[in-house]
């Protein structure tokens, strides 16, 4: 998002499909406090991978840097957990004071509060206090207010009273910018023509674009070839073929073999480091190589929710940039899949 002046938001490319997001962010960052209040609360909604968290947390970082005031960023489920802990330890007043005096309150995935009416009521009163003080609220959810099952109507009404902004997956223009940015940051030698082929052929999220370019880069290094338009087209063809024939069980078996584990360990609730790493690699590759949803991946790998799967994929993406052993593990699994 050029021109915002913040490092985190600089890497969000709005594209024509997300112009309203750009307008809202500019208003919050560039205009005075009074003018920005018409966007309060700012409600961002969209499917996983559209950049809701990126924008919300980017704004939190920007406000911290510019205003040096109290900023709280949390998730719906963490808000509920903190409230439970505060009740059990009799520190509810301290909990309320911290949240209600925040100059900026960022709540991600509000719909995760569906299982706790007590937490919903507490958040309702928190919002009233923060808004009455003239402070700001930013929230994210998969759907707009009014469409949240098992969430209090009054809470949905509060979040819908400001500006509700949908986020769409990146279009061709944004995908082109994202791929150029990834190539530059990761120093991937890729021809402009190849980036154009990928941008047109990959209708996926920003994270998936980054993963696809990384995979193509690994292939090029193994084969000692250049990443040109022909290589990009060949990659897209193989990707389409893989999506037709590779399933979650194939990926799990190949990953378990690569990490010297068995399938039951990979799909268990174990938090052993090697199991967690292997599971993250398997979930990451499931997103890259199949059309399976985050929820379906979570169910397969031990009944995890989509947020847990997304966290595991993001962590693996980060490790792929810096950890040679993770890069090699992903290569081993991919090679194993090719021989199945």
Would you kindly provide a written description of the structure presented here, covering whatever features stand out?
It is a single chain. The chain is α/β, with parallel strands linked by helices and 340 residues long. The chain folds into three domains: 7-166, 3-Layer(aba) Sandwich (Rossmann fold), CATH 3.40.50.300; 174-245, Orthogonal Bundle (Helicase, Ruva Protein, domain 3); 246-340, Chromosomal Replication Initiator Protein Dnaa, Chain: A. 62% of the residues lie in helices and 7% in strands. It contains 18 helices and five strands. The protein has helices at 7-10, 19-30, 33-36, 52-67, 76-88, 92-100, 117-132, 153-159, 172-185, 192-201, 206-223, 229-245, 248-258, 263-266, 273-289, 294-300, 306-322, 324-338; strands spanning 42-45, 71-75, 104-108, 136-141, 163-166. A five-stranded parallel beta sheet has the order 2-3-4-1-5, sandwiched between helices. The protein starts with 6 loop residues before the first helix and ends with a helix.
CATH superfamily of the largest domain: P-loop containing nucleotide triphosphate hydrolases
Q: Briefly note the CATH topology name of the largest domain.
A: Rossmann fold
Main sheet: strand order: 2-3-4-1-5
CATH architecture group name of the largest domain: 3-Layer(aba) Sandwich
Biggest beta-sheet profile:
5 strands, parallel
Radius of gyration (Å)? 22 Å
Strand content: 5-15%
Tally the helices: what do you get? 18
Count of individual beta strands: 5
Judged by helices, strands and strand pairing, the structural class is alpha/beta
Reading off the top of the CATH hierarchy, the class of the largest domain is best stated as Alpha Beta
Shape: globular
Helical proportion, percent range: 55-70%
SSE order, one letter for each helix or strand: HHHEHEHHEHEHEHHHHHHHHHH
Total domains: 3
């Amino acid at each position: 998002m050029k021109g915002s002046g913040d490092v985190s938001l600089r890497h969000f490319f709005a594209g024509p499909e997300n112009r309203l997001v750009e307008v809202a962010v500019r208003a919050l960052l560039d205009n005075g406090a009074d003018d920005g209040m018409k966007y309060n609360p700012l409600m961002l909604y969209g499917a996983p991978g559209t950049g809701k968290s990126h924008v919300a947390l980017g704004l939190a970082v920007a406000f911290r840097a510019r205003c040096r005031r109290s900023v709280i960023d949390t998730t719906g489920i963490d808000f509920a957990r903190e409230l439970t802990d505060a009740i059990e330890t009799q520190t509810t007043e301290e909990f309320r004071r911290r949240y209600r005096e925040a100059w900026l309150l960022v709540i991600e995935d509000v719909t995760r509060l569906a299982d706790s009416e007590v937490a919903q009521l507490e958040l309702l009163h928190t919002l009233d206090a923060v808004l009455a003080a003239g402070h700001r609220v930013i929230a994210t959810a998969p759907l707009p207010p009014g469409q949240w099952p098992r969430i209090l109507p009054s809470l949905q009404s509060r979040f819908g009273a400001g500006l509700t902004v949908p986020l769409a997956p990146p279009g061709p223009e944004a995908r082109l910018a994202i791929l150029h940015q990834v190539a530059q940051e990761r120093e991937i030698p890729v021809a402009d023509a190849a980036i154009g082929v990928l941008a047109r052929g990959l209708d996926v999220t920003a994270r998936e674009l980054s993963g696809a370019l990384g995979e193509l880069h690994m292939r090029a290094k193994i084969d000692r070839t250049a990443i040109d338009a022909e290589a990009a087209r060949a990659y897209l063809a193989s990707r389409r073929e893989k999506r037709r024939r590779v399933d979650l069980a194939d990926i799990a078996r190949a990953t378990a073999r690569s990490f010297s584990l068995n399938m039951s360990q990979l799909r268990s609730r174990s938090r052993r480091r090697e199991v967690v790493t292997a599971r993250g690699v398997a979930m990451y590759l499931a997103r890259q190589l199949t059309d399976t949803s985050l929820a379906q991946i979570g169910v397969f790998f031990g009944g995890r929710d989509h947020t847990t799967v997304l966290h595991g994929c993001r962590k693996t993406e980060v490790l792929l940039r810096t950890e040679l052993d993770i890069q090699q593990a992903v290569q081993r699994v991919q090679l194993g899949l090719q021989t199945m």
